[in-house]
């Protein structure tokens, strides 16, 4: 994450407000801006300019993030469009974790913008592949889990989340993503959620310092 933040700062410094509005006619400039010494060992460095240009094209086609609420029928269409049009967003992946994570941030308003409708929140998918490890730590996984197909695992998880968090099933994704991580003052999920009081997995949490 630190390297990613540095990369974004460098791109913003070099390209300014034009970073996400560049077109194919700006390819040479974009290629030069994407050449950075600290990326020398990164295996995907030669693809970076193309990735940035793809994001610019996506925004030109679909508008900025606040307009996606009306520009897409729902989060499923948003995720499918990103998978088709953006590199490494899961065009061949059955889970499309990256797309659904971005959809969660946008639809639930976690990026600071106004969240989408309740219907859209209910339509969010939580890929079990993204949270299988913390689910195991919480003791939530049923017997015979390793023998289930990817589809059956997803069906089980959607049913589990739907029963416990009917109107906002994606709310459980936030603590699950951070339940094993350490933050500056303790478990990172406590910092993210402002404490344990409203945490949807509090009763099963293995953290001894719940407060």
How many discrete structural domains? Answer: 3
Structural class: mainly alpha
Biggest pleated sheet: none
Q: Compute the number of helices.
A: 11
Terminal residue distance? 28 Å
| Strand and helix order | HHHHHHHHHHH
Helix content: 40-55%
Strand content: under 5%
Which radius of gyration do the C-alpha atoms yield?
19 Å
Uncertain regions: pLDDT < 50 for 5+ in a row?
A: none
The residue-averaged pLDDT reads: 86
Quantity of strands, as a count: 0
**Overall outline:** globular
How would you describe this structure to a colleague?
With 211 residues, this protein is mainly alpha-helical. It has 3 domains: 1-62, no CATH class; 63-120, no CATH class; 126-211, no CATH class. The protein is 49% helix and 0% strand. It has 11 helices and no strands. The protein has helices at residues 2-15, 27-33, 48-62, 68-71, 75-85, 97-107, 118-122, 128-137, 150-164, 173-178, 188-193.
